[in-house]
What we know:
Layout: H1 2-24, H2 29-34, H3 39-49, H4 54-61, H5 77-80
Amino acid sequence: MNIIKNWAERTQRRMTMMQRMIQRLDVDSSKIICDDNGVTFRAMIGRCRGCEQPELCSAWLDGKRPESSPQAFCPNAAAFEPYRSH
């Protein structure tokens, strides 16, 4: 049962981080979700779950690495660009 619990907790942490990233980058999440029947959004979720640098992401989101750019560590940075509300 711990395997399922660990998977669920990791997924929750990553989805929280992805939501924070979407907000911080001023990304229109409704466009991502609706675009191509959600295929792009599901791909983003998969990349976020598989990210190997969650510590960098968390530090950046917490303002501890303001000099960094998400493009340096976020596997979704390029995918977010067309959906930003610049």
